[in-house]
Amino acid sequence: MPNTIDRQPPENTVLDNVPLSPDEYSHLFDLQLKILEMSASHDKVSDVLAQLCQLAESLLPNSVASIMLKDSKTGLLSVLSAPSVPQVGIDALCNLQPGPGGGSCGNAVFKNQAQYVQNTFEDERWVDLRQVAYDFNLCSCWSLPVRNDTNEAIGSFTLSSFEHRSPAPFHKKLLETGAAIVRVVLNNQSNEERIQLFSTAIQRASEGIMITDNKNNIIEINPSFEAIYGYSIKDVINRNPTVLSSGKHDKNYYKQMWGEINTNNHWGGKIINKRADGSEITQWMSVSRILGKNQKVQNYLAVFSDLTELKNAQKKIEEMAFIDPITGLYNKTYLEKNLSNLTEKTNLILLNINNFSYINTAYGFDLGDQLLIQIADTLKAQFKSSQLYRLNSDEFAFVINETINTEAYINSIQKYFYSVVFQIKDVTLNISFSYGATYGIENLLKSSALALKQAKQLGKNRYHILNDADANNDESQHKAFIAANNMLHDALENDQVVPFFQGIYNNQSNEIKRFEVLARIKQGDKIITPYHFIEPAKLSGLLPNITKIMIDKSFKIMANNDFSFSINITGDDLSRNYLSDFIEQKLAQYKIAPARVILEILEGVSSSGKKNHIKQLTDLKSKGLSLAIDDFGAEYSNFERILDLEIDFLKIDAKYIKNIDTDAKSFEIVRAITYFAKNSNIPCVAEFVHSEAVQTIIHNLGIDFSQGYYFSEPEEFPQDKAKTKSKS
């Protein structure tokens, strides 16, 4: 079977010309809307960039997004934003030198071109960062340069994947969109203090705004000021506000005004000023004195009474950020804003149009848009007690504040749409939905999306209502996973990952001379099994780190005896291509005879038949090590591959052993495996031997070895326990 990497299309193939789907356009549109809303709300630049990364990650599962920025003085790159990357990963990329071997980001900045690296473990562009790729399981990395106004590359926007793959046209468009947004945000960042100051003025003012420096020279005005007075910023910059003086007020008037400003930091009153054309204008004006950290005057702020035009502009921005342009409904961004302010329990029902993508494909986007408008109008007219939103291209949401029977409500929607026919031009369409619903105050959108996902798994026109227990369980699992991941990183950092040894009983010699090495985390007197950390290790790409620790520490312990021992090897270990050299080094370091070491590989790894994996396993056997198939019978049961690899041991999966004394099906499966192994001259090991009844059957079937708590519990050091428990 060819390697997965070989099946990926090369860069710049014809796939780049494939048009994006409606859903993909919708995802990009939602991303831009969210960032626009944050920018309109003047959120911190760091928060905006972090949100951009997280939104990009949500559109490419099993990936992390990052933004790097070049130091203008040193020319070196460092991470500006990477919310999902641990600090140790951010530190590893600090002061990266752009260049041909500087990874995807280093090349994107160095060459000022997009870089789509499919295999970071082999690509020459990653030669200087190969260890980083290995340490953090960065299999693929796609990076676009972020450019300044002169098109110079000043940074990068990057998606790194934990699996080998090439970007689809959608992912390239996503990267282009992200890089463009970063450019805008960074440009705005240089004026952040000015923008923040102007934002503060807008919040205080009701119309025109003028800001002066500590010497009372004009440094900023707003558009309403220009409209009121007819002056542009060029006309008044660095000039004293006396340019507005009408001559209608005497010196005492201004003396009293400045006396109040200096005493109370504020003045307000009626004033007659003069426009640029010489005409007079009577206004209410307030002046505030802005003090710096040292309590000295930093600026003066003058505010006029009417901000009608600015309010209209703000309303237009809000409409762009919160209104769906097709249906006129409030969008997902506005829904999220409203849900964040809930104080009472609320119903949220998501309605996903079944087969909408097929309608767009068959009849075109124009008809699809007309259908969305008709559906929106129908839902608004028939279900008036609900607040209706359009979330994505084919998804609507009902928010219902009153107490309802959710199941009955959904049934009423289903019943109504059974009889509704939509007529658009000469096309007649019937519509149905999949529904996801929840009730509560917190995490409503997340919970309803989870419910919708489960509903879709049931089929078309189905619904799922997520109750509090389901939501709490999902949140609990999420928190538990984060805690386990943190615990694993702490254990690796503090050298708390240790080997334990479980004896393997020889059913012919009635003794224990072989052991399996099992990973544990030891924190004081507390022993933590892989059940609590193996999944985070897989997803974080840390399994090879654990394997290396197990090899090194078990070899060191076993150097003091002559027992044979087995070590578990994963597909991730084989993908890193380090095993042969590493094991050979440790054999020499601890003077371990290769014949004592058995490598246990999962059945799925041996049966998948990746060329590189098979080559490594064959090479390891040639060095004198033995191979065992772990959990045999659990997955593929590729007997031909077992024989091709010349496997030395078969370990029968525990799920068939543990109930073999009461389950006839398990007994027959184990008997068949044993028959195959004996005919192939492959010794068998029965896992999970936990009782005399089970051991009796294992012995009668002629299985060579038994492993389980009946004979040996995992311990920190291997012990020769020649147990002679019942064998018949």
Tell me about this structure:
The protein is α+β, with helices and mostly antiparallel strands and 728 residues long. It folds into four domains: 4-189, 2-Layer Sandwich (Beta-Lactamase), CATH 3.30.450.40; 193-311, 2-Layer Sandwich (Beta-Lactamase), CATH 3.30.450.20; 323-466, Reverse transcriptase/Diguanylate cyclase domain (Alpha-Beta Plaits), CATH 3.30.70.270; 480-707, TIM Barrel, CATH 3.20.20. It has 27 helices and 26 strands. The strands form five sheets. Strands 18-19-21-22-23-24-25-26 form an eight-stranded mixed barrel, surrounded by four helices. The chain has a five-stranded antiparallel beta sheet with strand order 2-1-5-4-3, with helices on both faces. The longest helix has 26 residues, at 468-493. The two termini are 45 Å apart. 35% of the residues are buried.
Indicate the low-confidence ranges by residue numbers: 1-15, 306-311
Percent range for β-strand residues? 15-25%
Structural class label: alpha+beta
Mean pLDDT metric: 86
Short description:
The chain is of the alpha+beta class and 728 residues long.
Write the layout of secondary structure elements.
Blueprint: H1 22-40, H2 45-58, E1 63-70, E2 77-81, H3 87-92, H4 103-111, E3 115-117, H5 130-136, E4 140-147, E5 153-161, H6 169-189, H7 192-204, E6 209-213, E7 218-221, H8 223-229, H9 233-236, H10 251-264, E8 266-274, E9 280-291, E10 297-303, H11 308-322, H12 332-339, E11 346-353, H13 356-363, H14 365-382, E12 387-392, E13 395-400, H15 406-418, E14 422-424, E15 427-429, E16 433-440, H16 444-458, E17 463-466, H17 468-493, E18 497-506, E19 511-523, E20 526-528, H18 534-540, H19 543-558, E21 564-569, H20 571-576, H21 579-590, E22 597-602, H22 603-608, H23 611-622, E23 626-632, H24 639-644, E24 649-652, H25 654-657, H26 664-679, E25 684-686, H27 692-700, E26 705-707
Parallel strand pairs: 16-17, 19-21, 21-22, 22-23, 23-24, 24-25, 25-26
Antiparallel strand pairs: 1-2, 1-5, 3-4, 4-5, 6-7, 6-10, 8-9, 9-10, 11-13, 11-16, 12-13, 14-15, 18-19, 18-26, 19-20
Helix pairs in contact: 1-2, 1-6, 1-11, 2-6, 13-14, 17-18, 19-21
